[in-house]
Design goal:
Length: 540
């Protein structure tokens, strides 16, 4: 018979060969193992730095949750009335996952370790506490009665009967918590941190360095697996019996799960670049009025959710997406085979939003919030040319406006005057908007474009798509109220307090929409050259 270790080794080799073969179809989306190892080798100092932070956060989260779970379980067991209340509180907290709580916790406590440890501890506390609490009830009543007949004290019964019977349940909860600790810490790092593997994963994805993202994910997975296996070793007390073959089996199954989780491609699906906003009204209106379908393109529009639109296009999950031209250039520079098939906004929108009335010189010594490190790279290049030296850079992800109005930062980078500035004005906040062109960015530059994979079915129908898109833009501008109502009907959540400011936003957006689908080569190339000169993309 083939030994298990040999079988697992053969399966691992087979998996690596399959991975390598699949990656040859699109190395931008699925880099091969060599690319991942090379990325880990090239960035090992960076990965090590962030890995140490994540590992320490995972360990500290477990310690904190254990230090709270044990006394809570004892209180619940000793005082049933209070125990029922605590169980209800746990169920309430369980209904709010850490991914939902993290942005609120950042708002309450600010950025830093607390914003990571609080949601992680809450997430781990439930299985640990409930596991121990149920375990304390697991001792057979006959065993307890027998000890009482021997005149054993409550402490002796607790020590020699209830604790031994509680340990299996407790360790079951501990295994669950140790398996979740990576996810728990990740939730906080994505929202409230500027270090850690979760942060590095998002930055690599935002910077379209996909091999580095995979390398970060592999390290995070190994940490989670390590904590889980340590929990098993503690439970069994027989570390020398742990077989490496089981680890290989878990690794193979997990990687196969990731590789096979690709969604099937649906023709002519278009993903928005962000949460639906007035920038997208022409697309929504054109889809509803059948302008695309009558030209042989039955378009279906999707919101991005947690997906990266450019990665979704490159992987064939969707047909096209709305994106920013600068980001498209970065994706192409990283090896993506993308092509612009349409234009939505042909003028620069991106810029800086500052509380109150300020000038460029006021930015010296200020705290600048950016949505990602890759965005800060552009901002830093522009600030350096303008002679501006901020006191700090703060990565905000998607919570930029909250950080601005709560004075966690003095200004936010990567916002639009027709969207975020209008939204803040509706809340009574007066702001100053500075366009990127004021800092030396090309004045004539495309902002929002439609991107498809080169050679795809939609790319081959680019001319028909452009005619449908321009018709959608022209008709939505000609019938602004009707287009806005179509937009509101498509997204029912817009019927609340957002209607008033989005109506104003739509009024400011219409003049910004392109009047032609013909791309100006001079403006197109000017941005590409500027990105090369700033060192944001290579000169290849």
């Amino acid at each position: 018979m083939i030994r298990k270790s040999t079988l697992f080794t053969l399966l691992a080799l087979l998996f690596l060969l399959c991975w390598y073969a699949l990656s040859s179809k699109n190395r931008f989306i699925l880099p091969n193992p060599v690319d991942v190892v090379q990325a880990a080798s090239n960035h090992w100092l960076l990965i090590s730095k962030h890995a140490f932070v994540t590992f320490s956060e995972m360990a500290l989260s477990i310690v904190l949750s254990l230090s709270m779970a044990i006394p809570l379980a004892l209180i619940m067991y000793s005082l049933p009335n209070i125990g029922g209340f605590i169980q209800g509180l746990f169920l309430l907290l369980k209904a709010f996952p850490s991914f939902a709580l993290s942005p609120l916790i950042v708002f309450w406590v600010g950025f830093g370790k607390a914003a990571i440890l609080i949601p992680a501890t809450i997430m781990l506390l439930f299985p640990l506490t409930i596991g121990l609490y149920r375990g304390l009830h697991a001792a057979p009543q006959s065993m307890v009665d027998m000890f009482r007949c021997w005149r054993a004290s409550k402490f002796q019964i607790f020590t020699y009967v209830q604790i031994p019977y509680a340990l299996p349940q407790f360790f079951s909860g501990l295994r669950i918590a140790l398996g979740l600790v990576g996810t728990a810490v990740l939730a906080g790092e994505w929202v409230g941190s500027e270090e850690g593997l979760g942060y590095l994963l998002l930055e690599a994805k935002e910077g379209l360095n996909i091999p580095l993202a995979y390398a970060s994910l592999v390290v995070l997975f190994c940490f989670s697996l390590l904590f889980y296996l340590v929990g098993i070793c503690i439970e069994k007390g027989i570390l020398h019996r742990l077989k490496l073959g089981s680890i290989a089996q878990i690794l193979i199954a997990s990687f196969l799960l990731v590789s096979c989780s690709q969604q099937s491609d649906k023709p002519y699906t278009l993903m928005l670049d962000w949460t639906p906003c007035p920038n997208h009204i022409p697309l929504i209106y054109g889809e509803s009025q059948g302008y695309f379908e009558e030209r042989g393109i039955p378009l279906q529009i999707r919101t991005p959710g947690s997906h990266d639109p450019l990665i979704a296009v490159s992987s064939g999950q969707i047909s096209a997406c709305v994106s920013h031209l600068q980001r498209v250039f970065r994706a192409i520079d990283q090896g993506a085979d993308l092509v612009v098939i349409g234009v939505l906004v042909d003028s620069t929108l991106n810029g800086l939003l500052i509380q109150g009335e300020k000038t460029v010189s006021d930015l010296n010594g200020s705290r600048i919030g950016v949505v990602s490190k890759s965005a800060s790279k552009t901002c830093q290049a522009l600030f350096a040319r303008a002679g501006i030296i901020p006191s700090s850079w703060v990565t905000l992800r998607s919570d930029s406006l909250t950080a601005l109005i709560s004075n966690q930062v003095d200004a936010v980078w990567g916002v639009y005057p027709n969207i975020e500035q209008v939204q803040l004005a509706s809340l009574g906040h007066k702001t100053t908007y500075m366009s990127v062109s004021e800092f030396g960015y090309p004045k004539k530059s495309y902002e929002l474009v439609i991107v498809a994979q080169r050679g795809s079915a939609l790319h081959k129908q680019a001319e028909a798509f452009q005619k449908a898109l321009q018709a959608s833009i022209n008709e939505s501008v000609a019938h602004p109220q009707e287009a806005f109502e179509v937009y509101l009907n498509r997204f029912e959540e817009k019927r609340g307090n957002t209607v008033d400011w989005e109506r104003v936003s739509w009024d400011k957006t219409r003049p910004l929409l392109t009047h032609t689908q013909e791309i100006d080569p001079e403006a197109y190339n000017a941005l590409h050259l500027w990105l090369q000169d700033a060192g944001i993309i290579s000169r290849k």
